[in-house]
Known about the structure:
This protein has two domains: 3-279, Spore Coat Polysaccharide Biosynthesis Protein SpsA, Chain A, CATH 3.90.550.10; 307-427, UDP N-Acetylglucosamine Acyltransferase, domain 1. It has eleven helices and 28 strands. It has helices at residues 3-11, 48-56, 71-80, 109-115, 117-120, 141-150, 191-196, 201-206, 227-233, 241-250, 270-279; strands at 13-18, 39-40, 44-45, 61-66, 90-95, 127-132, 135-137, 155-163, 171-175, 181-186, 215-226, 255-259, 264-266, 307-308, 312-318, 323-324, 328-334, 339-340, 345-351, 374-375, 380-382, 384-386, 391-392, 397-398, 407-409, 412-415, 418-421, 426-427. The strands form six sheets. Strands 1, 4, 5, 6, 8, 9, 10, 11 and 12 form a nine-stranded mixed sheet that branches. Strands 15, 17, 19, 21, 22, 24, 25, 26 and 27 form a nine-stranded mixed sheet that branches. Helix 1 crosses helix 6. It is globular and about 65 Å long.
Amino acid sequence: MTPTNLSALAKQSLAIIMGGGAGTRLFPLTKDRSKPAVPLGGKYRIVDIPISNCINSGLRHMYVLTQFNSTSLIRHIAASYKFDHFSRSFVEVLAAQQRPSGAHWYQGTADAVRQNLSDFLQRPYEYFIILSGDQLYRMDYRLVLQQHIEKKSDITIATIPVDRRSAPDFGIMHTDPERKIIRFEEKPKDAAMLDELKIPAPLLRELEKEENEELYQASMGIYIFNRDALVESLDNDFVDFGKHIIPAAIKRYAVHAYIFQGYWEDIGTIRAFFDANLNLTNLAPPYSFFDTIAPVYTHARFLPASKIDGATVKQAIISDGCIISDSHIERCVIGIRSYVGSGTTIRQSIVMGCDFYEADLASKEIDGGVPPLGIGKNCVIDHAIIDKNARIGDGVVISPEAKPENFDGENFYVRDGIVIVPKNAVIPSGTWI
């Protein structure tokens, strides 16, 4: 299929990005914001990943579905994705709302699409691309569309090969050698069942894998529906694509798997989010924002270059507009407008930065002993996530050492063995966490 035909396919497609869940697995980062609005990689938001994949794939019609804490997400999308006036390109947020047909929250991914189906069908889109809002990967959706057309599919599901150890954590698709899905099992744990779900040898050869490898096709939560197939699949009370719609569709439609072999990571948990961010500091990370062919877009803030005075920085990402004094920073992601005082050590941590500057960046404590924005002097921060606009005083120690894997403290949380200081938190000078 020629590039021209691929571009035409993209113009006939609508992308629907799912961001409506409460994001409980990412709490407390989702305490005051929706999951797609969580900062990523120092200067981005999670939602920038699927939106950028769409833009780089020639898809310029996008809806983001959300219902929890959507204010910052709406603000970010409005500030970041402004297309010219001479095209019909758009990125819009659709929040749950009262309608004549009902006034309930989205009950699941399928219900979210069903509630907004009248909006999606207003234009003559032929293909609907449904995407998850909490994954880190780079994909050209035109290639998925190309296979979708060539296989004459009603529905295409993107899958990724996983090993036997990981298979019980995913919905597993079993296909014939032509990639037609003939069976779906949600998080299979039975050994005999896993033996039946292995990728067949002819398909392993096609994927350039060893024929004796025990690999399984895990659903990535990425679906392409033909127009009629989507309308018919939602003509019921099913609420979730993975649990309900897809298993029923396999029996009724031509459903094929598109097997993706690049980097993909579900960053919907604190541990996965933490590891994915710190992996970005590697010299050759599995996912890189330094890609000129398929860049990741975000809000252009026009911040000054960062200022570093005598600091020791090893394997770190330093975002725009930071002021870092004589400190030690090792394997960290430092977000926009971060202030780090002298004598402070930060290791294996994510500092998300600030939404604004104070009048005096190096000011002393203000009314009531409240520290200024940023991280004060002589602090030690290890294996932590410092959310935006946190005020951490001088001599503060933050570490998960000798703490439970999951714990709620006073003005801090521990999740998956990582200390999280929530957005706008105030940690007085001398505090030990």
